[in-house]
Amino acid sequence: MQRLRRWYAWFVRHAPRFRDLMYVGFSLLTIVLQATSNGQPGWRGSDWVVLGVGVVASLALWWRRRYPVTVTIIAVLAMGTVGIFMPIGLALLTLAIRRRDLTLAILTVAGYVAYVVGNRSGSSNDTIAWIFTGPFVIGTWVAVGAYIGARRDLMVSLRDRAERAESERELRAEQARLGERARIAQEMHDVLAHKVSLIALHAGGLEVNPAVGPEKVESSAGLIRETARQAMEDLREVLGVLRTDLSQDGADLAPVPRAADLARLVEASRAAGVQVRSELTLPDDVPALVGRTVYRVVQEGLTNVHKHARGVSTEVLVHGAPGTGVTVRVTNVRPVAADSLLPGSGAGLVGLRERVTLSGGRLDAGPTQDGGWRVEAWLPY
After folding, report:
1. What is the CATH number of domain 257-381?
2. Closest Cα to residue 36, out of 54, 13, 11?
């Protein structure tokens, strides 16, 4: 069975050359029959001319795939000189398969003229008959070749479209996977980065000031424990959503924050020892999407303060009204220490800018003139 498969694969690979050989042999056979059909014993000089021209035109069919126009011209000349029909038919068939343009039309007309000239005789009735039968004979070869060529082109086009559709489907699936991974990473950052920064801030306060007394140590330990518990609960909810594959339907990966949670967010930073002055004047009926984005902007700003500017004075301003939009600004003064409490992931501001842009707003983040840092966003409302 394996040997048969190898033979079949070899035959399929060389099938076009077998067909070329068959066409050449069939054309040579018709040439020999035509040269010996004079009805007289022996070979005349015209018979040798027919045989010689026919052999050249038939052997040229071996290169019909590579040089279809040249082979067709040779067949037209052979038809016009000695009336050899088979090479011109096979040549026009191949040319019509390969191309259907002005060149095919010109050579088809030339083939028809050669057909009439090559079959001329002394009788005017025979000449008129060849004139009327020529379009059907030559046209049949061209029509069959054009049909085969058009069908092949259609199959190639359908195959290309199928391959392109498959590639586009795989590309969309890959883009969806990358987008989902980025969304999960952003949600994980939003959920955990702020609370972990609070834990590190409390622990850092105890580390730099060990003589604060047992009451302060107990209070800080309680805050650390409560913040760690909240972080674990948020992480459990995110992982629970991932296990149930709800994220594929666009479900939120974490509890949806609201604008009403801003006061609690600021108070948590104050409890960690950050000097935060806040001014929150946002209406209660702000849309959920706007409120969530505002919360994330303030959260990211305070998280960066916890990491890179702990203990400095920070200002949080949130104000807005319908028709004018919502402005969010988190500004801190220049930190005394240059080291960071926690390493940055590099995804916070990038994801925040994308979130604000998708909401139709804009985000600016950068240093202030006095060496501090400012995160400012505007959202349509």
Report:
1. 3.30.565.10
2. 54
